[in-house]
């Protein structure tokens, strides 16, 4: 008989279920770290380019790298938000596995898909605007 607590249906939340939940959390964690790292890289690189622009006679226009700085900051904040939300989701899934009441939640899939599509569209529009 698998380890774990028995729910109303007679099935058990096994170690496999909990490990899958943990792997999902770690995937979200890696994504958050990647977003934060990319945001820092974009922000720092835009600062470098704006300083380089100041030292040369060439001017690209007022605030040409401000958008990149904001994009970097936005990615950092988005990564931090993703990390917090993934921790809450992990805990909620853990509790429902222990109670034997786990049901998949497709809402997070649709919200994440929508957010990535919107951000991807905005980024594409920003790239072609240049």
**Whole-angstrom Rg:** 21 Å
Q: How many distinct helices?
A: 3
Helix content: over 70%
Q: Describe the biggest sheet? A: none
Shape: elongated
One letter per element, helices H and strands E, the order comes to: HHH
Estimate the mean pLDDT confidence. 80
> Percent of residues in beta strands?
under 5%
The secondary-structure class comes to mainly alpha
Instruction: State the end-to-end CA separation.
Output: 62 Å
Low-confidence stretches: none
Got a strand count? 0
Short description:
By secondary structure, the protein is an all-alpha fold.
Characterize the structure shown.
This protein has 130 residues and is mostly helical. It has a domain at 15-104. It is built from three helices and no strands. The chain has helices at 15-55, 66-99, 107-129. Helix 1 packs antiparallel against helix 2 (66-99). The chain starts with 14 loop residues before the first helix and ends with a helix. 8% of the residues are buried.
Helix and strand topology:
Blueprint: H1 15-55, H2 66-99, H3 107-129
Keywords:
single chain, 130 residues, mainly alpha, 3 helices, 0% strand
